[in-house]
Fold:
Amino acid sequence: MKPVTLDWSSVSDAEAALVSRCLAGDEQACTELVESHQRMVYQLAFHLLGDKEEALDLSQDVFLTVFRMLDRFRGQSALRTWIYRIVVNQARNRQRWWRRRYQSAQVPLDVHVSEHGELSSPRDDCGPERLLRQKEQADRVWQALRDLPFDQRTALVLREIDGLSYEEIGYSLNVAVGTVKSRLARARQLLRAELQP
Structure:
């Protein structure tokens, strides 16, 4: 393997050492890299895809890609941000594939309600009824999030759930900070409209 020139200005000393050890073929370093990022990768994949099995499958693909492309990592961002970019790109590709393959099998919500009816709303605020309402509200929020355009959903998840800065999101999505702010504003506006009673 040829030597790699890195700009470590955005990478901590520990990350730089970890990347160097991985590139040198140190299996323990590769294990450390996976262990330190696997939860973040899975959670982002789940928030973008909305399916546990798909998120697990995507997580495996992401780490295969990370190790295949690690020699291209130049340290222009934190390692975590570089991995976010890989997750987002693979989730986008998987969602496009899924949409093409399964779009005909989807049933509009109004058709489902007309065929199966709606749940009756509980009258009191105690016990199982309250828990059911909370679960329904959470389901409603997740559905509204899934209904957002992929680019807007991704920006919102990276900002509000994963806590990335505008600059980190811009790098992960390969867009300008102004585009990140615009996508976030549109996503929040759509969510508010969808979730109003």
Observations:
- Residues 1-6, 119-124 have pLDDT under 50 and may be disordered.
- Residues 68 and 163 are 27 Å apart (CA to CA).
